[in-house]
Write a structure and sequence with these properties.
single chain, 527 residues, mainly alpha, 2 domains, six-stranded mixed sheet, 20 helices
């Protein structure tokens, strides 16, 4: 009779051997992990999500027009979205791929930054811990300014580190370019620029650079990069700044709100970090609190004191400065603004709490990691697929955007015998028509030319427009704000469409109207 291992013992032995192999080949497993993340987080939304995200549609509405700014955000992420979608028609999977490319590029930047300082294994651990942060998995499929900022944020820090390490003017020029691109993606990156500035001002290694041309050269390049957007901002009465102020304020502010706002934001960020902290706790027996300041252990030989200072600034600075800004200005913070803040936090926690060899606890960590990784995918799929059944309410992702756009475009062609050049309405309904329509019309956001500066009033008058809105009931008329702007619009019979789910939901009611094309000299349309 042959001896055989019990099944569980065999699995345990295999897992232990695999964990040992990961520890000996961290660069190989970093590559495999990046491929797995890119493939799975692109494939899952592509398979189960029938309609584009709101933020993606918004980017496509803006990106089509190639402006130096839009009423909510700087232009870079909208441009990138437009270019990335161009070859693929009406498919929405490029948006998911674009998001995950941003995440993976962030992983690569962190890997390149951390490996020389902590070694390949701890660099791999830093990346795997990043995967445990909410912003790198569950919210990542929706490409927007937060996701687009992730790789720019990480690579800017890496270039700054290289500029300090190599003492090269070339890296300072690239750093200025990267900071400019960050600001063109989202204004929150100004916090990142402040972190670098504080490092230069308040550390001995940083202050010596203030006597050299590098930082000033980078500031010059930064100014040149953002100059066209600043010019646009001044020409459009600071629209993006107005929007930012509206998003961060409430109607009635109380004196104690300056304490509540930072606490609320901090609690939201702790929630986003919980899976990462759960993963890190697998090494609790390796936490070396008493020796965490010892710099000459086997895996700390290569990290210098200035590198430690910089890593601390990068890991903790953005959150601290944001909380301080909220307190001083009594400003409400949106939780998603914290998306890029923790890019270097796992590496710093590893440096502080795990100064010794970690291979002995890597096997239980991997078990936790695989569980968290798979649970993230399952949770995303369950929310997208299950919400209409459990809550009897569709998500925007079940919206019949393509069917609506096709029907409305056909009806427009039938009535006007010309292409559809303009669609008017809320960014959601009009954005769906703007993207999915075969004519790819320009969107007049909320019917306001001030929010849609790419629209020429004369062209709008001569070409006419299609107005679209979601109706609450079958007898609902055109929304009042649109009726006031387009009083001569001709309301058409309402359209009923089913949401893209098999859940028993009431149909979507789509109201629409036609602003007929006008010829010069006829004052039919009042804009």
């Amino acid at each position: 009779m042959l001896n055989s291992q019990p099944p569980l013992l065999g699995v345990s032995s295999w897992w232990s051997r695999w964990s040992d192999h990961v520890c000996t080949q961290p660069d190989l497993y970093f590559l495999l992990f990046c491929i797995a993340h890119l493939a799975l987080w692109t494939a899952l939304p592509s398979l189960i999500q029938p309609n584009a995200h709101l933020d993606v549609l918004e980017c496509l509405v803006w990106g089509k027009e190639w402006q130096w700014g839009y009423h909510k955000h700087p232009p870079l992420h909208a441009w990138v979205t437009e270019v990335f979608f161009m070859p693929f028609g009406k498919s929405i999977w490029p948006g998911f791929l674009l998001s995950q490319l941003c995440v993976v590029l962030t992983f690569i930047a962190v890997w390149r930054y951390i490996t020389p300082q902590l070694g390949k294994l701890k660099a791999l651990l830093s990346i795997l811990l990043l995967e445990g942060i909410y912003y790198y998995n569950f919210t990542s499929p929706e490409f927007n300014s937060n996701v687009s900022l992730l790789p720019l944020w990480a690579w800017t820090a890496y270039i700054f580190y290289r500029a300090l390490k190599r003492e090269s003017s070339f890296f300072w020029i690239i750093f200025g370019l990267m900071m400019g691109l960050c600001v063109l993606s989202k204004y929150a990156s100004l916090i990142w620029g402040l972190v670098f500035t504080l490092y230069l001002l308040f550390t001995p290694h940083g202050r010596k650079w203030l006597r050299r041309p590098g930082p000033y050269l980078s500031f010059l390049v930064f100014g040149l990069v953002i100059f066209p957007h600043v010019k646009w901002l001044l020409a459009h009465e600071g629209q993006t700044l107005t929007y930012l102020a509206q998003r961060s304020s409430i109607e009635v502010l109380r004196w104690w709100d300056r304490f509540i706002f930072p606490v609320d934001f901090m609690l939201a960020q702790l929630g986003a970090l919980l899976p990462m902290l759960f993963l890190l706790y697998a090494f609790r027996k390796k936490f070396n609190i008493e020796r965490r300041l010892v710099l000459h252990t086997s895996e700390r030989v290569s990290i210098q004191s200035w590198e430690h200072d910089l890593l601390k600034f990068l890991a903790l600075g953005p959150l601290f400065l944001t909380l301080l800004l909220s307190f001083i200005c009594n400003m409400r913070l949106r939780s998603m603004w914290g998306t890029p803040f923790f890019t270097f936090l796992p590496a710093y926690l590893i440096y502080v709490f795990l100064p010794i060899d970690i291979r002995g606890r890597f096997s239980p960590f991997l078990m936790r990691f695989v569980a968290i990784f798979l649970l993230g995918l399952l949770a995303y799929g369950a929310v997208i697929y299950g919400q209409p059944y459990l809550l009897h309410k569709p998500k925007r992702l079940h919206y019949p955007g393509q069917a609506m756009a096709q029907i409305l475009t056909q009806e427009w062609h039938k009535r006007t015998h010309q292409p559809l050049y303009f669609v008017v309405g809320d960014i959601w309904e009009a954005g769906n028509v703007g993207f999915y329509s075969s004519d790819r019309p320009s969107v007049v956001i909320d019917g306001q030319l001030a929010l849609s500066p790419w629209v020429d009033p004369l062209s709008l008058r001569e070409s006419g427009a299609l107005i679209v809105w979601t109706a609450s009931h079958e007898n609902a008329g055109i929304p009042e704000h649109l009726h006031q702007r387009y009083p001569k619009a001709i309301v058409q019979p309402m359209i009923k469409l089913n949401y893209q789910t098999s859940a028993p939901l009431a149909p979507l009611l789509v109201g629409w109207a036609i602003v007929p094309p006008q010829f010069p000299g006829r004052n039919f349309l009042e804009i």
